[in-house]
Amino acid sequence: MAVLISVLVQTPAHSGLVSALHYEHPRELPLGTLVRVPLGQRETLGVVVATQDTDSLPEGTHLRPIAAVLEGLAPLNARWVELIEFAARYYQRSPGEVALSALPPALRELNSTQLARRLQRTKTPAAAQPQAPKAQTSAVRPELTDEQAQAFEQIQSEPGPFLLFGSTGSGKTEVYLRCVEALLEQDDSAQALLMVPEINLTPQLEARVHERLAPRWGSQAIVSMHSGLTPAQRLRSWLSAHSGQARIILGTRMAILASLPHLKLIVVDEEHDPSYKQQEGARYSARDLAVYRGRLEQARVILGSATPSLESWQHSEPATSGGKPPRYRRVAMPSRIGLGALPQVRRVDMNLQPRQTVFSGVLLDAMRERVRAGEQVLVLLNRRGYSPVLHCRSCGWKSECAHCSAFRVFHKIDRTLRCHHCGLTDRVPRHCPDCGDADLGMLGRGTEMLEEQLAELLSGLTRPDGQAVRIARIDADSTRLQGALEQQLAQVHAGDVDILVGTQMIAKGHDFRRVGMVAALDPDGALFSSDFRAPERLFALLMQAGGRAGRDAALNRQSPSELWVQTFHPQHPLFEALREHDYPAFAQQQLKEREQAGMPPFSAQALVRAEARQQEAAQAFLNAAREAGEALLSDMPGHADLGPGEGLTLFAAVPMSLQRVASVERAQMLIESPSRLLLQRFLTQWHPILHSLRSRHRSVIRWAVDVDPQSI
Ligand code: ADP
Ligand code: ZN
Ligand code: ZN
To answer: How far is CA 12 from the centre of its chain?
Structure first.
């Protein structure tokens, strides 16, 4: 007597939100069992989600049999399956897609025999993780400061989730490590997940975690999970976490979906960082899933940041009398320890500078002084390449990309024009392609040009040892090669670099000890961006960047560290708050604006994006979807009785701000509601309608829903 088994598989995108496919098998299989099943002509990996008898099936139903059961691998547990099903529902994807994307790719390719061999190998000590990089910090456990001790106590004694609001260098990482230690001491199977935004930041944390925890629990107990690992390494980490052997998992956003049968603690470091949001497939927020998973697993959750997301800040706002208790418990650590004071903020009013000034005189003088004193300087500009636009002075031609609504960037290093969106690259023309004139000029500057200009402006400048000043650059171009970033960072740490020019890559996390000064050259764009989150991002970036300065207290005693900002809007409230290092004031002002405008966190949003060869076609699909949505709303009980702005609003389709990429036109449509529940209910009913609409809009190449989008 065969049974019917429901299996999650990665189904083709056009099949909609199917929940599971059905197969038959001679016996029942536990929930979460990994199996190989036939799908069309191929065989694929799947996860068992239900078993029932075949009696209920209509007469003559033909089920294909399960091809193989992955023996030797414990089933994924019910909580993992629930997490996947929640994520799929919430982010409007099929559970099969989410489940399979959460499993290591190598697992999909192995048959049962190969898998058995792998499993054998992970059990032997020879499979130890590659040696972790050497830590710069010492492994001795420092005595906790009063603030740290209080934070630690509170986190141990209350259920959370916690928002650990601590300045850069306030010792948040130390608190995380103590919480991990305490947990592993108490419970000898418990697992802790430590998440960081980017791989970029893992080597330092990895080293620190190894130094601290490996002597006690063994280096086998610590694994990493991020996209920089080889498929074999990823499989090994995953298997180790799934088996419970790994007790400490360090990872980027993908780690939130790992199988962690004994998960008891989740730390989300730099919780405000946009890279916690997945940008393709199921566009999940690993931070938000961490909070959900914490509840599911009864695990403690700590979100940490010096500049929390406004969502988390709002959710941790202490209750006013009679109000609901806050969703997160806020734990503050305002003081920087072992480090100097936070940097002094200096604003240079660019209105008072000669036109076209790149480096103001005062800024250059300050840089010179720092270098002469043997300190390092970080120069921040969020634009890579040499110049963002090349143009013809006689006819006005500009270096537009043929395939995108963007300019191609001039890279002097290899004399190319490169599109940063589609990659289209050509040699720089000697003459204008339109009129043949040789008078080509540049508009604006990128990091490559800055590096060159600084070398000229500071020629003759020497360090205390009499050597010439050394200038380096770190951005996506300089770090394209595997290992390049690590090598460049090591040079900065070793003091081989005096002035480091770079994009936001240099602002995050790095513990540069000798930086006395950070300069943001041109931050104004974010003040007036069409993306309402731009100011929040800028504030976080500048606070983070400033946090790189003055990390060595001894340095600080000679002259306080500084954060310089060149701006045309020196009185802007954002810079006023920055000057005081006053995140709460900044947050309050931003939240007030958001509340008045009914924007997140006071409303929930979703975006539908569509792509087609023609902008009209993309918009036509979205506007048809909107019409169908309006009809759906008028049928939803009670919706008609809601006042304006209380229900759900479907906005008209508009071109995306980067309208065309690689010859594909892009459009989007915003859906907003003060009620997250209503938005969810609506999306769930609307999604199948969109699927069927698509078949009538054949020119649409792709479409996708983005729930809680991070950029508009
Ligand atoms: P954050 O994560 O908040 O930026 P860290 O935990 O990295 O801060 O701490 C900043 C620096 O202070 C690190 O070099 C760390 O080793 C050191 N540190 C942290 N806690 C203590 C402490 N209690 N006593 C002495 N030094 C500490
Ligand atoms: Zn021309
Ligand atoms: Zn392009």
So the answer is: 26
334 lines ligand 1 (CB under 6 A): no
Residue 208 alpha carbon, nearest atom of ligand 1: 16
Separation between Cα atoms, residue 169 and residue 579, nearest integer Å: 18
For 493, the 3-state DSSP assignment is helix
What stretch of H or E contains 700?
strand 700-707
Q: Pick from 584, 578, 585, 582: which is nearest to 563 by CA?
A: 578
d(CA 241, CA 259): 7
Scanning the structure block, which residue is given the tokens 């009185």? 571
Q: How confident is the model at residue 426 (pLDDT cuts 50, 70, 90)?
A: very high
In this predicted structure, what is the pLDDT of residue 12? 67
* Plot region of 415 (φ>0 → left; ψ -120 to 50 → alpha; else → beta): left
Q: Computed over its alpha carbons, how large is the radius of gyration of the chain?
A: 27
Burial 228-253 (b: 16+ CB within 10 A, else e): ebeeebbbbbbbbbbeebbbbbbbbb
**Strand ranges (E), 641-699:** 649-650, 654-661, 664-673
SS3 242: helix
Q: Which helix (H) or strand (E) holds 364?
A: helix 361-372
Hey, what are 273's tokens? 């960082």
Q: What are phi and psi of 184, to 5 degrees?
A: -65, -30
Which of the listed residues 178, 337, 511, 543 should we mutate to test ligand 1's pocket, taking the one with most ligand atoms within 8 A of CB? 337
> Ligand 2 mean position to 450 CA, how many Å?
26
Angle at 200 between CA 549 and CA 193, to 5 degrees: 105
**pLDDT-based confidence at residue 11 (cuts at 50, 70, 90):** confident
Per-residue pLDDT band for 606 (boundaries 50, 70, 90) equals: very high
Neighbouring CB atoms inside 10 A of 661's CB total 18
Is-contact 507 545, C-beta < 8 A?
Answer: yes
Domains of the chain: residue spans and CATH: 3-77+84-109 (3.40.1440.60), 143-333 (3.40.50.300), 344-384+446-597 (3.40.50.300), 387-444 (no CATH), 604-707 (3.30.70.360)
CA of 415 to the centre of ligand 2 (A): 19
Using left for φ > 0, alpha for ψ between -120 and 50, and beta otherwise, residue 292 falls in alpha
**Atom 23 of ligand 1: nearest residue by CA position:** 144
Residue burial 150-186, b: 16+ Cβ < 10 Å; e: rest: ebbeebeeeebbbbbbbbbbbbbbbbbbbbbbebbee
Distance CA 203, CA 475 (A): 18
Cβ atoms of residues 343 and 562 within 8 Å: yes
Tell which residue, 536, 507, 492, has the closest CA to residue 710.
536
Q: How far is CA 573 from CA 309, 353, 580, 585, 590, in A?
A: 18, 22, 11, 9, 10
DSSP 335: -
Express each pLDDT in 696-709 by its tens digit.
999 999 999 999 99
Q: How do residues 156-168 score in pLDDT, each as one tens digit?
A: 999 989 999 999 8
- In the sheet that holds 425-427, the strands lie side by side as 409-411, 416-418, 425-427
pLDDT reported for residue 61:
75
424 neighbors 401 (Cβ within 8 angstroms): yes
Ligand nearest to the backbone CA of 409: 3
587 Cα: distance to centroid of ligand 3 (angstroms)? 37
Q: Which residue type sits at 495?
A: G
